[in-house]
């Protein structure tokens, strides 16, 4: 347990310090949202309608593009080999690393949502709904994306390949995240159904992600 | 013969050489019968002759999922049993599966044009097949990204298994998404049960296409084994000429 807590603490510290790049995710999120009005026009009514979708897409891309940092830095300095050979189960370490990554990257995205909601003309209820769905859904993005990150470090190829592999897997999260936000904003369908499914997706990815990532690390590193 | 005997590539090559001509013959026969029956099948009272696209479209769609199943079994073979031929089976199945998926999309789109009035509709089935196609392409990109085949095999095996867990979830969410956005706007073939006149050619064609997959897969596996041997020989030659 102390080992896992140490991993979480270390990863958070590394992510938040100089060269860590955790807050670049938020900056990217902001930039994507700011780009949208240039693409669709400064029509506030339209932006309000598209708001949840834009915020979800931005958060999806931001959490995906920061994912390749999850294992590469550790692989480069050799600590990943130590982790793989260590006594703590690799699955648990993977889960701890993903949790630390979510705390450093995912949570700031959720925190930034109210500000970005203002830019997109969302009212308080809508912003709250989007923030709540992001809070429930971004863990699923991190834990599914972790599989891609593990593959990328095994293959020593990151970037576009990782995105191509992970993006199709994140479609369900996107569907239910946007659906729950829209249900809370405009109805008529209930908010509870898609939101519960979103939570279920997060919980199941919590189980599948660490095992798949650990399997690809264990089989792939030599 | 137990599966473990096939682990020897040379034995697999002999067996494949013996089976393939027969398999090609049977496939050709079944496909010819199926095509003939499809041509003489009656026109649909609503759709006219375009209903015959179904005899190509449905087998392709069925195979697009079947091939992912084959790859998942091969992936288990790679990760659990370290079966040397499982790598080869998984690698060669991916492009064939992608081709079947593409054909399912293409014929579906050609069928949709006269029926729905558009080549593409964000219908739940079409969309989930498109996502499946994207996943096939991603998997092929993964295979091509790494030089060492056994390394690529293990990475691809993990991705294949994660995909096979996720494909039903994706299918379910896309169904849900579509009913939310546009309830019952698409005219679909399903619903009514198929008449015997359509069912028999369809089943024959499905069997024919499955045999076609088997034939192509065994042939591709044989080529891949030979390709790897050639590559090993070339590497040996190169290292010798350096020394």
From TrEMBL, chain A:
Its main location: membrane. One of its GO terms (biological process) is cytochrome c biosynthetic process. It is a multi-pass membrane protein. It comes from Nitrobacter winogradskyi (Nitrobacter agilis). The chain crosses the membrane at residues 21-41, 53-71, 92-120, 126-153, 160-183, 195-217. Keywords: Cell inner membrane, Cell membrane, Cytochrome c-type biogenesis, Membrane, Transmembrane, Transmembrane helix, Transport. GO terms for cellular component: plasma membrane. This is Heme exporter protein B. Required for the export of heme to the periplasm for the biogenesis of c-type cytochromes. Belongs to the CcmB/CycW/HelB family.
TrEMBL record, chain B:
The keyword Transport applies. Keywords: Cell inner membrane, Cell membrane, Cytochrome c-type biogenesis, Membrane, Transmembrane, Transmembrane helix, Transport. The keyword Cell membrane applies. It is a multi-pass membrane protein. The chain crosses the membrane at residues 20-41, 61-81, 93-112, 124-143, 155-177, 197-219. It is found in: Cell inner membrane; Membrane. Required for the export of heme to the periplasm for the biogenesis of c-type cytochromes. This is Heme exporter protein C. It comes from Nitrobacter winogradskyi.
């Amino acid at each position: 347990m102390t080992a896992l807590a140490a991993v979480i603490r270390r990863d958070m510290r590394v992510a938040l310090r100089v060269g860590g790049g955790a807050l670049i995710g938020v900056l990217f999120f902001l930039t994507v949202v700011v780009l949208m009005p240039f693409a669709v026009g400064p029509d506030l009514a339209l932006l309000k309608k598209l708001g949840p979708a834009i915020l979800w897409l931005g958060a999806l891309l931001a959490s995906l593009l920061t994912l390749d940092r999850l294992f590469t830095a550790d692989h480069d300095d050799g600590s990943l080999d130590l982790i793989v050979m260590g006594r703590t189960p690799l699955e648990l370490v993977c889960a701890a690393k993903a949790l630390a990554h979510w705390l450093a990257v995912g949570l700031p995205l959720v925190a930034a949502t109210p500000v970005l909601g203002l830019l997109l003309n969302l009212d308080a209820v809508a912003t709250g709904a989007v923030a709540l769905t992001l809070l429930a859904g971004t863990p699923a993005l991190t834990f599914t994306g972790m599989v891609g990150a593990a593959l990328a470090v095994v293959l020593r190829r990151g970037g576009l390949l990782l995105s191509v592999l992970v993006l199709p897997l994140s479609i369900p999260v996107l569907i239910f995240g946007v659906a729950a936000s829209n249900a809370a904003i405009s109805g008529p369908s209930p908010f509870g159904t898609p939101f519960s499914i979103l939570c279920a997706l997060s919980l199941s990815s919590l189980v599948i992600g660490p095992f798949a990532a650990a399997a690809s690390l264990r089989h792939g590193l030599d | 013969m137990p599966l473990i005997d096939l682990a020897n590539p040379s034995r697999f090559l002999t067996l494949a050489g013996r089976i393939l001509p027969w398999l090609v013959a049977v496939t050709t026969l079944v496909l010819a019968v199926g095509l003939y029956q499809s041509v003489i099948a009656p026109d649909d009272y609503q759709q006219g002759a375009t209903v015959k696209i179904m005899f190509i479209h449905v087998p392709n769609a069925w195979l697009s999922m079947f091939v992912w199943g084959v790859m998942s079994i091969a992936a288990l073979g790679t990760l659990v049993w370290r079966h040397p031929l499982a790598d080869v089976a998984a690698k060669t199945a991916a492009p064939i599966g992608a081709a079947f998926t593409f054909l399912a999309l293409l014929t579906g789109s050609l069928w949709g044009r006269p029926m729905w009035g558009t080549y593409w509709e964000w219908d739940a089935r079409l969309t989930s097949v498109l996502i499946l196609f994207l996943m096939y392409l991603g998997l092929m990109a993964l295979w091509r990204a790494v030089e060492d085949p056994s390394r690529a095999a293990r990475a691809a095996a993990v991705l294949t298994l994660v995909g096979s867990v996720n494909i039903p979830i994706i299918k379910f969410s896309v169904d849900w998404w579509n009913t939310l956005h546009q309830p019952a706007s698409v005219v679909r073939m399903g619903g009514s049960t198929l008449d015997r006149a359509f069912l028999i050619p369809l089943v024959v064609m499905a069997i024919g296409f499955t045999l076609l997959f088997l034939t192509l897969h065994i042939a591709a596996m044989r080529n891949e084994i030979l390709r790897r041997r050639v590559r090993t020989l070339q590497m040996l030659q190169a290292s010798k000429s350096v020394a």
